[in-house]
Write a structure and sequence with these properties.
Nitroreductase-like; 4 strands; 247 residues; Nitroreductase; single chain; NADH Oxidase; four-stranded antiparallel sheet; Nitroreductase family protein; oxidoreductase; alpha+beta; 9 helices
């Protein structure tokens, strides 16, 4: 009981602030001319990158579109939505499927404990490659599938590895979306707003930003200060009971 009271005392101020950030966040479609200072944006991006992610492999990138020429074309690629046209900053949030191996090695190089524990070396040096590697024409994926099925039958539950490039894309997209939400909430905490846009021409945007086949735009994020008519309707959600299941 004492521990619960102590936790409540410590957490209450943070909870109030967090609730205020989450409840005041809206998808804003029109912004004022007020700029987002560079230091504020850097801090928001830092907080974005503190998002939880699988094995700390951080498969995300953020392209802040500041060039006027590129910005004009990016707005066109967003179908000239008001959010894109009026945003102080326009950001492409990108998931990568091709850097997991290099990031696994980077984790070992930058690990905060020295020497690096053996179980950490084994995890990033052996297990991670087994999770992701597919081989030519997915030949290794078939072998992984067989091993996984055998394990389930003989030993019990086991996490499925990634069999296809689509599996890896889903993994990278899921992790990147978590970082995007951190960025959205960080902007709100700084007094700015945003609009996460899925309505854009991804092939055209990838061409504009010179992205490769292993870079996937999860969303375009328009950010800025909320204009008086920036919110189009009152916020509402369906009843919580419709979605939450206790089993």
């Amino acid at each position: 009981m004492g521990n619960q009271e102590q936790t409540s005392t410590i957490d209450t101020p943070h909870l109030d602030s967090f609730r205020a950030v989450v409840e005041s966040r809206r998808s804003v479609r029109r912004f004022t001319d007020t700029p987002i200072p560079d230091d504020v944006l850097r801090e928001c991006l830092r907080l974005a990158m503190l998002a939880p992610n699988s094995s700390n492999l951080q498969p995300w990138e953020f392209f802040v579109i500041d060039s006027p020429n590129i910005r004009a074309k990016a707005v066109d690629n967003c179908m000239r939505q008001n959010a894109a046209k009026t945003a102080a900053r326009l950001i492409a949030i990108v998931a990568r499927t091709d850097n997991w191996h290099e990031h696994a090695k980077q984790v070992l190089r930058e690990y905060p404990l020295s020497p690096v524990p053996k179980k950490v070396k084994d995890y990033y040096g052996r297990l991670i490659p087994l999770e992701f590697v597919r081989g030519p024409v997915n030949v290794l994926s078939l072998a992984k599938w067989g091993v996984t099925q055998t394990h389930r039958q003989l030993k019990g539950p086991i996490k499925s590895p990634y069999y296809t490039l689509e599996d890896i894309k889903q993994w990278a997209t899921n992790n990147t979306a978590l970082a995007a939400e951190n960025l959205i909430l960080a902007l709100r905490a700084h007094g700015f707003d945003s609009c996460a846009m899925g309505g854009f021409d991804e092939p055209a945007m990838k061409d504009l930003l010179s992205l490769g086949e292993h870079q996937h735009i999860v969303m375009m994020l328009a950010a800025g200060e909320r204009a008086d008519k920036g919110i189009y309707h009152p916020q509402f959600r369906f009843a919580q009971e419709q979605f939450v299941h206790y089993v």
